[in-house]
Design goal:
alpha+beta; single chain; 13% strand; elongated
Amino acid sequence: MMENKIKEKILQKYLNSNFNGVPFSEVAKHFDSVSDAKICIKKLVEDGDIDIVYNENNPHIKGFDFSKNQELFLSELLNVPDDLEREFICCGKIKIEVGNKYSYFCLYPSKKLLEQVNNNNRRILEMPPFKKMLCFGAPQLEFVYFRIDVLDRYLEDPRYDIRYGDYYGQIYFNMDTEDHPEDVYLKYFGIAYNIETRENLICAFICDLAKMNDRHQYHFFSYMEQPNDKIVPEYNFYKNQILGEWAEECSIFDAFLEEIKTINKMTEIICNQKLFINEFSDEDRKKLTNFHPFLKPTKKSFELFCQTLDKLFTENLDSKVILSIDKLNGSKMPLKYKPDGSPENGSLALLKMFIETYFKAQNGENVAKMIIDVWNRRETGIRAIRSKASHFIRENQYDIKILGEYNKLMHETYKSVRLIRLVLANHPAVKLAKDNGSLKMPDWLFDGKIRNYFISSENN
């Protein structure tokens, strides 16, 4: 029967290609008329053997689960006029083929048919997990979710390179070899959230996971989380990967580093020196292995995160610049000096003294404390956490609540550097530079379009 022939054609095309569909126009060539082809397809759809994908952008992959749309798609197909003639548009003397509405329809084996055929197929059953999922009809753009420690294997091995963006990452094998058993390439993975447990996860498309070699597919599969309505991808990752749109906000990590650059511009205007010794480019950011939202909720990871923040801020402060600004303003800071002539105070204490001496908030708030507290408070300050990690042997611990600590600490540290920028913005020379356009800062930073990708204890 023609129905069986068409069903087999669609099935074999799917299983022996990159899980592509058969265009309706190709099926129609096997019939005396388009009307006869429609009758056959209608029967196969109603029997649950094939699925229609109607997509004006790309019907040649089954990106999503369209099982609930079959009645609508079938009706759409049946209502198209029986005309398979190619359509062209003229661009000067050149004719460009644009196809016709039938080019928006592709045909795929249904999950029901794939299960019937593959359940006894040893070759399919022995495939690695994500490729097998596609063989059984999983949509190519379906997200799969994993515990974040699935990345440990790659983080701790120098042969791998993990590149982080704000809400996404990529994995490369950086050894220059061919067909190495450890070779891996994951095009994109993104942040995801378990809203119920308040846990950061990662997610990736099935089609990207299926392109990894067998051992890496099994590795990822062992960390897989079962999907439910409480697990969701980060919206900006979804928007970028599915809708092709970029995030409107920048990450709080980029904002932190951008504040350092802006503060340095301001102190250069004031005293021709930079308050922070080092600035960090996009390339530098990639080297900051503990400065991104893909961190595990463990005590060790949290302490490394605090160490990184301390290096970016406290150890990066240049005390000489604070003293230079004080001297330019009449040396009003109550400094005490050691016998060698150097100040008794460290960089954080000097910064606190500088703010207290030269800036008074109109609402009476202790701005100096607001800036310094997150770095210097007892027990829970960044310097205290780093000191304990450096001087004592501490047992590691896994605790999802640590994700909330990441979130809180990142907010506090960003608020600290932002307040320094706002304080310096009151200096007359900085005001003048801003008014005449010689001091510029990104609009997104000025407007506060910033997102923290750590999940918090509140709704994300």
